[in-house]
Design a protein that fits this description.
This protein is mostly helical. Helix content is about 65%, strand content about 10%. The protein is built from three helices and two strands, in the order ββααα. Keywords: Membrane, Transmembrane, Transmembrane helix.
Amino acid sequence: MNPSGHHEAFPLQGGYPGQPAGPTVVSIRESPKDHIVWSICTLFYGNPCCLGLAALIYSVKARDRKVVGDLDGARDYGTTACRINTAAVILIILIVIVIIIVVSVSAAQTAASYNRYSYNYNNHYGK
């Protein structure tokens, strides 16, 4: 497939016995991607709202369609799996960022209250 997304046709010279002597054109189509490895990683390493499982299901469906020969169906299922995986990764990143912020704020508040407590303790007992 060329960068513009169109399929290229390559002329073949020569031929097989029983074939006309003129040049033959063969269309080469790129096999659709099923994103199964990405789906498995999403399922095991971060599965927000079961999106990893949904992506894995669509990836398996895309692989089944590809085996049967339905390339358009495989492409549709593969695209859906890719979109679900992308949404899952974005959610995982947002969750990690929120956790980092919550832990940082909590640690800062704990340190501030500890410093306040130790300051009051030292002033009260004269140490």
